[in-house]
């Protein structure tokens, strides 16, 4: 129970602290940030909000975690997203200040009665990082299930806002990586293991080879050998996934991984949140700089959520 509680706390704070680091410089170009790199938790900037303010990435992560403190229910997860967008549920400072287009459209459809698993667009142009950025808490529900079940549940939870296969595979890869971290594996071992396991599994589902080929930099190459200029950090799901794995593999602690993600520019909060989730799990909550955690808004609420999620997962 104690390890589970610690892992959940590491994951939730890992996402939120990474997110808050990136919020003040969101949308700034890499070249612009390079003139004055982010080296610490700062505030204001893009949204003019105090240091430690997390964005939609963390709010939606917490909405998912909140739903998972009860029995798994896709509708409850979706309704929590509606409650966040319309009633500021789990918003950092009482108001929503950032939301992706595809996410907003899906939430509005759900609010009008659309079934959650069909709310997210299945269009190839709707592959923003909106489901990847919030998916991590699902790990603690699916980690002991067989791979086919892990995939199916991940697909459903992604599809609430992002139903295209590319978003689904991105979430699946990310959670498989996180699952291996939980088992205590070395990050490079995990990277290599997934290069065999993920394609084998996806091929068993007869998924379009062309779609799988989008993941070649992760599944066939060694992404850690790429130079920074070869890594993109836009809001496209594949860019976010590649950037987060690259940041994780090319640093050796939480602080450097998340700062590297922020300093890539563009979708800074999300790249750093996605990186921070894995880095939090890999290195542990105690390695997240204390002054960053202390500045994080709603940290007692996040701690409480972690404890409730651990209790549910321990008992079920």
UniProtKB/TrEMBL annotation:
<dbReference type="InterPro" id="IPR036705">
    <property type="entry name" value="Ribosyl_crysJ1_sf"/>
</dbReference>
<keyword id="KW-0479">Metal-binding</keyword>
<dbReference type="InterPro" id="IPR005502">
    <property type="entry name" value="Ribosyl_crysJ1"/>
</dbReference>
<dbReference type="InterPro" id="IPR050792">
    <property type="entry name" value="ADP-ribosylglycohydrolase"/>
</dbReference>
<protein>
    <submittedName>
        <fullName>ADP-ribosylglycohydrolase family protein</fullName>
    </submittedName>
</protein>
<dbReference type="GO" id="GO:0046872">
    <property type="term" value="F:metal ion binding"/>
</dbReference>
<feature type="binding site">
    <location>
        <position position="267"/>
    </location>
    <ligand>
        <name>Mg(2+)</name>
    </ligand>
</feature>
<feature type="binding site">
    <location>
        <position position="56"/>
    </location>
    <ligand>
        <name>Mg(2+)</name>
    </ligand>
</feature>
<feature type="binding site">
    <location>
        <position position="269"/>
    </location>
    <ligand>
        <name>Mg(2+)</name>
    </ligand>
</feature>
<dbReference type="GO" id="GO:0016787">
    <property type="term" value="F:hydrolase activity"/>
</dbReference>
<feature type="binding site">
    <location>
        <position position="270"/>
    </location>
    <ligand>
        <name>Mg(2+)</name>
    </ligand>
</feature>
<comment type="similarity">
    <text>Belongs to the ADP-ribosylglycohydrolase family.</text>
</comment>
<feature type="binding site">
    <location>
        <position position="57"/>
    </location>
    <ligand>
        <name>Mg(2+)</name>
    </ligand>
</feature>
<dbReference type="Pfam" id="PF03747">
    <property type="entry name" value="ADP_ribosyl_GH"/>
</dbReference>
<feature type="binding site">
    <location>
        <position position="55"/>
    </location>
    <ligand>
        <name>Mg(2+)</name>
    </ligand>
</feature>
<keyword id="KW-0378">Hydrolase</keyword>
<keyword id="KW-0460">Magnesium</keyword>
């Amino acid at each position: 129970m104690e390890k589970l509680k610690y892992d959940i706390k590491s994951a939730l704070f890992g996402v939120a602290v990474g997110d808050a680091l990136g919020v003040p410089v969101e949308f700034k170009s890499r070249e612009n940030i390079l003139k004055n790199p982010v080296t610490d938790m700062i505030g204001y900037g893009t949204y003019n909000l105090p240091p430690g303010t997390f964005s939609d990435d963390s709010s939606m992560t917490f909405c998912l975690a909140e739903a998972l403190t009860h029995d798994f229910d896709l509708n409850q997860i979706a309704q929590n997203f509606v409650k966040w967008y319309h009633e500021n549920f789990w918003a950092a400072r009482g108001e929503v200040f950032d939301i992706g287009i595809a996410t907003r459209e899906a939430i509005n459809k759900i609010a009008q009665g659309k079934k959650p698993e069909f709310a997210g667009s299945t269009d190839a142009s709707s592959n923003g990082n909106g489901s990847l950025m919030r998916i991590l808490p699902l790990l603690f529900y699916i980690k002991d299930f067989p791979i086919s079940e892990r995939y199916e549940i991940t697909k459903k939870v992604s599809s609430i806002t992002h139903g295209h296969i590319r978003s689904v595979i991105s979430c699946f890869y990310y959670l498989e990586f996180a699952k291996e971290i939980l088992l205590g594996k070395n990050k490079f071992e995990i990277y290599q293991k997934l290069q065999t396991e993920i394609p084998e599994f996806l091929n068993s589902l007869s998924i379009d080879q062309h779609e799988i080929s989008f993941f070649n930099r992760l599944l066939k190459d060694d992404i850690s050998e790429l130079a920074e200029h070869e890594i993109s950090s836009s809001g496209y799901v594949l860019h976010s996934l590649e950037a987060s794995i690259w940041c994780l593999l090319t640093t050796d602690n939480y602080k450097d991984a998340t700062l590297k993600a922020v300093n890539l520019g563009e979708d800074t909060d999300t790249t750093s949140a996605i990186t921070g989730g894995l880095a939090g799990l890999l290195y542990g909550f105690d390695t997240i700089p204390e002054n960053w955690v202390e500045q994080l808004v709603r940290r007692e609420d996040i701690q409480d959520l972690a404890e409730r999620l651990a209790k549910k997962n321990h008992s079920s």
